[in-house]
Each structure stands twice: as structure tokens, then as C-alpha cells.
């Protein structure tokens, strides 16, 4: 079994039997697939301990990953196999093809994308057969030689993003599915990025079309408004966060790239009821907050590739029920076996009219869900004119001064940190702010920009309605302490944000519950990353100072002020402890000197009351004395998700 953190993608798919002698009737079996960077392996069961490996393809042998033709088998009661794709590989000098069937178009595209990514350095073939070999001829071109090279040009990825492993929800990779043009193969033909490759790409690629997931109001000249569900043609996607697009009236302008999704990859995202990877706990809070009978959402299950329906009902008392959306051997979706549909939207539609065994008929889904923050308030904008800010009430005050709620140009909610003069090296920070506006992740508080022309300087960020996580934990201790699932979910969210920073080689230096914020729908985000570097106050920056966060610091920071992502990991362990104690002060009333003594002796914090042993074991890993022995955030995130799957129900 692969180690969890090696797994690139996993989930169920329907596999066509590879019986080499008999070609009809064809057997299709549901298998659990696991893709790592080394192999694609399939099992007969998804239950971890009971998994029995049924087969494996060494990825070095793969030469083709392409969409296949749908096949209808009249012999078998006219079964049509949907969303097929194929993986061609070579073993002992012989070619084999594995035919797989995903459960949706989106899933098929994502499996193909992942497989192509892990095989990016392979020598790939130019041509392939889209249809199956029937025993006498190829179903696609009717060619009767089994060894013929193929009738269709392979289609390859055209833009390889640098952050394949980025889970920040907006997938920037695209490939030209369905185009019948000459191939631009990774590892073969023109090297992507070279002028000749670019020319080829330009002349052969159909324009990329995206669909707006949210409305967006252009405020700055040069930007373009988006209308939810409308289509736009992408003119320039060379910048990560702002793309130039054309609407169907011919108007062009910049739009935030996280507000759109490629048309071919949009899948369920066009539906109001689909909430992507919202956790069970957050979906429960969201539905309970709406408090409407029959209110529902569909979310990704914690088992990759599967979906869960979460439904609110008041009968016999207000609660949320969770149902796995299952599939039968014909790849049809169902909640109750009697009512199967060929797609999830059809299934939802069916249950909107018939409860069909559910606690209630599906009625509404939460509306007016907040749109995500944009990376800066407009493209290439990080300097903000203070006259465009309307300042409202005070949200709190911290190390750097007062924070106030505000509105930019009367439309976007912001938080404005008014920096006390003399507290930070301003010029260096202003330079850094340009980079920081480009860091964008669902679990990081977005920096919109700065007002740097006047004093005091203002730091303008995304507004988070519930304020600091520390206060939130303390305020809601009663309800939260009995909901370990919600506490674990908060830790997972923070870990995702930190894993993004780690991937971008960005060190936080002051990670603690006081520096995380809570927004609507119980979203938790990390704030103030990297700010500690620009503080001028010795009491804060030197490990002997009274304001230095000693209780969150590992031995190497206490001894040599050596910060790294691994010192952030130590602080993250302490932050987990804060979460599971609902905001207690680590080490209670111990003085800083006493804390340092304890930490040097390896005596760290005790297990919070009611905290699962598995969760505390993870905290302890964060407190390994040697930084090298501590896990990475990426690894930690997988461990936390595993624990949550093990101790909580999906
Ligand atoms: P800080 O200076 O970052 O420690 O912020 C002081 C307090 O202001 C925090 O404890 C929060 O209650 C509040 N605050 C800071 N940033 C935000 C924000 N982006 N949204 C809402 N409240 C905030």
C-alpha cells in the first residue's frame, strides 16, 4: 500500500477486463484505483486493511493517456460505458491498453490530467486508437491489423503549470480535449515554452473558453465584469491571478482567474448546490445556519472521487443527514438503489421531486455564498488610494496598531490595519507587499494592497467577519469543546494554508491562534504571514524580548533564532493545542524562562482534555526536538485528513 502522502489521486473507476483471449462479452468491474508518482495500482476494495491488489502499471512504461470512445455493447443489454479513457503501456516489449471509465466528465479529465502530470517525462506516442480492439478490427477505424499505429493524433497538455500539487481550488492547467490536431507531446516534439512550441501552440489550439463561477463587478479601468454562468474567451493567461478575456459582446478586460473555470473542466461547479471540498462539519454549520427544511449541498466525500449529499431536516428534530452518492455497475448514480440516474445533476433533479427514501425532498441550497477574495483589488494593483477607502468601526488592535473595518470604492469589504509609526521597517515591507498580494489560497487572509504614500501606512486585507481564531475559540468554547470534528477541521484548514506557504518557501514566523481569523461559513485563514520580519521592536524580535512568542518557539529558534518551515511546524503543533483546548494559554502561567527550560528538557504540552490520542500524536510529531524529524505541512495535512477519516464519519 502506498504511503498516504505519496498518493496523487485515488478513487473508484470502472475497469474493462484485460482478458487477452476473449474480447466479447466484455467484463467491467468497479475497482479502487490509487495513483502515485511511481505506479497506477488497483484494488478490489477501498477498506484500507482489506484492500487486495489486483494489478499495477509501472508509470515508466506508460506511453499513452487519452480519451477513449464510448462503447455500447448490444450483447449485454445495450450497456453504454460512459467517460472512458485509456492508458497505453508496454511490458516485455508488448503493448497493452487499460480501459477505464470515470464517473463523470470532470473526474475523467482530472484522472487524465494527473496521469499525464506524473508521466510528463515519458516518451509518449503520437497516435492511438480511440476505440477498442474487437478481436477482428479496431472499433474506431475498422483497421484489421492489431498492431497498426493508431488512427487519431494524441492530444497533449499544452500548458504545464508550475504548481501541479496546488490544491488552491482553481486549477490553471488545461489541455485541449477533443482537438484533432498534431500533437505537442511533453517529452517529444517541441519543448513547451520555446518560441517554436509557442507558435505551434498558437496556431493549433482552440481558444480557451471559461465560465464565470461568480459575478464580478469591474471597478478599475481595464478590468471586465463577469456574469455568473456566462462564457468568456481567454486572450491572455500568462499572469497567474488576472487573465485578459473577451465577453460575447466583444468587450475585453482583466478578470480574477479564481472566478472562472475552464468550460471543459467545469463539471459540477456550475451548480449552486455543489460546495466542492467543504468538510462535513462546515456543511453542517452552513445548513443549520440556513435552517430550512430540505436545504442541501453536494460536496466531495473524504474518499476521493466520491460525492456526499448533506441534507437538513427538522424532523424529528433539526439535524443534517449525510448520504454517499453511490454508483452501480452501469456507472449510474443513486442514493437509493431503486432510483438510478446517469448523472449527479439528474439525480438531484429526481430527488427535488421525490424524496425517494431521503429524510426530505431536496428543496433549496444555500444562496448568496460569498465569492472568494481576489489577488489584489485589480490586476497589477497593490497601491491603494486612501480616499477610496471608507473606514467604519474598530475591529481590534494588535502589535502594529488599530484595525478597522472598511469598504473599498463603496463595494468591497476590507480590513484596514493602520500601522503605528516606528513599529516596522516600512520601505522593506512595501516592497514585500507586492509579492504578498500574489499569494492566494482559500486558507490565507488575502492581502489586497497597501496605502504607502501617507503616514501611517495602511495594510488592506480581506475582511473576516468573526475576527481572531483565539477569541472565537474562547467565545464558543461550550459548543466547540463537544465537537472534536469541527476543531480538527479548523486545524486541517490552517494546515492547508500553511502547506501553500511552505510550497512557496514562505515562512510565517509567528503562527498562533491569535494570528488566524475566522470568516463566514466557519472558514479559518492564516493571517500576518511574514510580517514579523519587518518589526522594528527588539522586544518582539529577540528571543529574550518580552513580546517574543516564546511559547510557540522550537529549541533552534530559542537558541539560534533559526526560523524555517520546520519552526512553523512546531508553532503549528502549539496552535493545534490551542484549538483543542478552545483557546487556553499554552504552559498556563509559567514564566517565559520556565517555558524555555522545559522545552530544552523536551517537556512539552500535555494532551488537551477530550482530545483524541491520534490527534495528540500528531501534535507531538510537530514537537520533535530536531527540525529534520518534524513532518512537512503537506505530510501533516494528509495525516490529519487520515485521522479525521478514521475517527469521524464522512
Ligand atoms: P492584529 O493587529 O492583526 O493582531 O489584529 C488585531 C485584531 O483585529 C484581531 O484580533 C482581530 O480581532 C481584528 N482583525 C485583524 N484583521 C482582521 C481582518 N482581516 N478581519 C477582521 N478582523 C480583523
Automatic annotation (TrEMBL):
- What PROSITE patterns does its record include? PH_DOMAIN, PROTEIN_KINASE_ATP, PROTEIN_KINASE_DOM, PROTEIN_KINASE_TYR, SH2, SH3, ZF_BTK
Task: List each copy of the PH domain by range.
Answer: 6-120
EC nos: 2.7.10.2
Q: What's this protein's family per the entry?
A: Belongs to the protein kinase superfamily. Tyr protein kinase family.
Annotated Pfam families: BTK, PH, PK_Tyr_Ser-Thr, SH2, SH3_1
Keyword field: ATP-binding, Kinase, Metal-binding, Nucleotide-binding, SH2 domain, SH3 domain, Transferase, Tyrosine-protein kinase, Zinc, Zinc-finger
Residue positions binding ATP: 417
What is the catalytic activity of this protein? Answer: L-tyrosyl-[protein] + ATP = O-phospho-L-tyrosyl-[protein] + ADP + H(+)
Which stretches of sequence are listed as region Disordered? 179-199
The yes or no answer to whether the keyword Chloroplast is present is: no
Q: Which cofactor does it need?
A: Zn(2+)
Q: Domain (SH3): give its ranges.
A: 205-265
One molecular function GO term is: kinase activity
The record's CDD domains line, in alphabetical order, gives: PH_Btk, SH2_Tec_family, SH3_Tec_like
Q: What is the protein name for this chain?
A: Tyrosine-protein kinase
What are the Protein kinase domain coordinates in residue numbering?
389-641
Question: Which EC main class describes this enzyme?
Answer: transferase
Q: Which SUPFAM superfamilies match?
A: PH domain-like, Protein kinase-like (PK-like), SH2 domain, SH3-domain
